[in-house]
Write a structure and sequence with these properties.
The complex is a heterodimer of chains A (about 280) and B (about 270). In chain A, strands 1-2 form a two-stranded antiparallel sheet. In chain A, a hairpin with a 2-residue loop joins β1 (about 115-120) and β2. Chain A folds into two domains: about 1-30 and about 160-250, no CATH class; about 30-95 and about 130-155 and about 255-280, no CATH class. The longest helix of chain A has about 30 residues, at about 170-200. Chain A is about 70% helix and about 5% strand. Chain A is mainly alpha-helical and about 280 residues long. Chain A starts with 6 loop residues before the first helix and ends with a helix. Chain B has a single domain (about 5-245), classed as P-loop containing nucleotide triphosphate hydrolases (Rossmann fold). Chain B has ten helices and twelve strands. A six-stranded mixed sheet of chain B has the order 6-7-8-3-9-10, with helices on both faces. Chain B has a four-stranded antiparallel sheet with strand order 2-1-4-5, with helices on one face. A two-stranded antiparallel ribbon of chain B has the order 11-12. In chain B, α4 packs parallel to α6 (about 150-160). The radius of gyration of chain B is 19 Å and the shape is globular. The N and C termini of chain B lie far apart (about 45 Å). The chains are: A mainly alpha (about 280), B alpha/beta (about 270). At the A-B interface, α8, α9 and α10 of A face α2, α3 and α4 of B.
């Protein structure tokens, strides 16, 4: 493959391949694993319950248990552990750390000092309460994001959209997002093909001003195409009876395994809440 | 009682008020007819079908469908609109436009769901179409994962499931391989035999004989220049050549270059 030097080219190729592989491939969702076998609405509800549980938990040990359960579920759902950890750990610690680091110091969280050091005449004290608070925050973030990532990895994206209906999101909203999902791919192909067509005619190197001109022209073209498509799709909807209030297919079916999983999740949540709040 | 479904009188339509798309079309379509509208690219065939489907409305002239004049206002009447959409189905030229849902199954059942069809009826019709079109394996896929032939089949399925009396098809075989073309032509013949009125726009002359009892030729001037039986139209080489529907074929016989108009009317 030719070396990619150009910044725009690199960004374009990277963004397109991420979207195609990450969003549209549905690689893990197509596998026959535990979470894939559950009804999507049950899966979404139980994931939400786990996330709420994580957010309200006060014990790092309990959150760690929930995180281990998440990893176990990933394994049972045939999601490669290395891939899963990479997806959930690369960005999160970065953002969580930025937010959590100040909290470990006595300025923000006063308490029992564990460590102190001086930087250009200022004394910084790290407190036990600060470390515990930051640890709880980071573990909450990582565990809840892991559950959300697992849900999106093991469920086809269009099914996830339809699950929104379970949460009483208006049909028209679900439909519009569904159409966006459908046509983003089409436009990605248009961008890719246009880019190849330009490259085949102008060669590898493009002068800066010429490059700007080409990009601007392409943005305008894409806008025009999307506008035309918008009109045509609306006509196609009208032609098949659309009258402003869309009716969407809802054919989710549940089986015993779904109900068992829902019962387990709800029981765990009730027990956890009981021990965390009422037993105190 | 009149047997006509559509009556067009001096219909004119322009895009953006300045680009003429149809210039004085007179046409009567009777119940159970098979009609082909042939013409070169840009002759206004698609515009004509969109007018017949009540998606756009003429600037001048009138269109009557099932005895009622088609004007923008009449579609505000919900019962008329629903009744019309149940009676008339359009297969768009570009299947990308028609397949706007995230999955094939949602696309196919979109029409009947909007038209308030019972779920049991939808399921039954879907099953029948799956068998006829062989699209079972495509149902859970996203339209962007399909080939052009598969997209075209799904687009046709999404219109056929409504079981409308009139089928409007905009270049249903464009870009398809011979086998898929054959399959679609057979399906449309079957639909006509079951009593449906079929109006096909195409510049693919080799399907015209099978899909039409009457052929209308539309010129680059956006007017109907001739109509008649398929045989009569297909034998009029001068007319077809004048409207870019056949090409001059040049080949060699024993070192002699030979040219003649070339027309495909049969599948090889």
């Amino acid at each position: 493959m030719a070396r990619v030097n150009n910044f725009i080219e690199r960004s374009l190729v990277g963004a397109l391949s991420f979207l195609k592989e990450g969003i549209f491939a549905d690689e893990f969702a197509a596998r026959h694993g535990f979470l894939q076998s559950l009804a999507p609405q049950i899966k979404a509800i139980t994931t939400l319950v786990f996330i709420i549980l994580v957010l309200f938990a006060k014990s790092i040990f309990f959150i760690a248990c929930l995180y281990l359960q998440c990893l176990l579920l990933a394994l049972l759902s045939k999601v490669r552990l290395g891939f899963f950890l990479k997806r959930t750990w690369i960005f999160m610690p970065l953002f969580a750390l930025f937010i959590a680091v100040p909290a470990i110091f006595s300025v923000f969280t006063p308490g029992e000092p564990l460590l102190h050091f001086e930087v250009i005449g200022f004394t910084f004290i790290i407190t036990r309460q600060g470390i515990l608070g930051a640890g709880l925050f980071i573990s909450r973030v990582i565990t809840s994001v892991s559950y959300a990532t697992l849900l999106s990895l093991t469920t086809k994206h269009f099914v996830l959209l339809r699950v929104l209906r379970v949460f009483k999101i208006p049909q028209v909203f679900v439909m519009v997002i569904g159409m966006c999902y459908r046509y983003i791919y089409l436009f990605m192909e248009v961008i890719e093909n246009t880019y190849i067509a330009i490259k085949s005619r102008v060669g590898v190197r493009v002068r800066y001003a010429q490059g700007q001109h080409i990009v601007a022209w392409n943005i305008a073209q894409l806008w025009q195409r999307s506008y035309q498509l918008n009109e045509d799709v609306y006509k196609a909807m009208l032609s098949r009876g659309y009258s402003g209030e869309p009716v969407i297919l809802n054919d989710f079916k549940t089986n015993k395994r779904d109900w068992f999983w829902l019962c387990y999740t709800l029981t765990l949540a009730i027990v956890a809440f009981y021990f965390t709040y009422w037993m105190r | 009682m009149s047997n006509s479904i559509f009556e067009l009188k001096d219909v004119r339509f322009t895009y953006l008020g300045k680009f003429p798309a149809l210039c004085g079309i007179d046409l009567i379509v009777s119940k159970g007819e098979k009609i082909a509208v042939v013409g070169a690219n840009g002759s206004g065939k698609s515009t004509l079908l969109h007018l017949l489907d009540g998606l756009i409305f003429p600037d001048k002239g009138t269109i009557r469908a099932f005895g009622q004049e088609l004007k923008e206002g009449v579609f505000n009447d919900e019962s008329f609109s629903r009744d019309f959409r149940k009676k008339v189905g359009l297969v768009f030229q570009n299947p990308e436009v028609q397949l706007f849902c995230p999955t094939v199954k949602e696309d196919v059942v979109f029409g009947p769901l909007q038209l308030g069809m019972a779920k049991a009826t939808i399921a039954k019709r879907l099953e029948g179409l799956i068998a006829v079109l062989g699209i079972k394996d495509l149902l859970d896929r996203s339209p962007h994962q399909l080939s052009i032939g598969e997209k075209r089949k799904v687009a046709i399925a999404s219109t056929l499931i409504i079981d409308s009396d009139v089928l409007l098809l905009d270049e249903p075989t464009a870009g398809l391989d011979p086998l898929t073309t054959r399959h679609i032509v057979d399906l449309l013949i079957q639909e006509h035999k079951s009593g449906k009125t079929i109006i096909v726009s195409t510049h693919d002359l080799h399907i015209v004989e099978e899909l039409a009892d009457t052929v209308y030729v539309v010129s680059q001037e956006k007017q109907i220049v001739k109509s008649g039986k398929p045989q009569e139209i297909l034998e009029d080489f001068q007319l077809l050549q004048a409207h870019n529907l056949i090409h001059i074929h040049r080949h060699t016989h024993d070192d002699t270059i030979h040219t003649h108009p070339h027309l495909h009317t049969e599948h090889h």
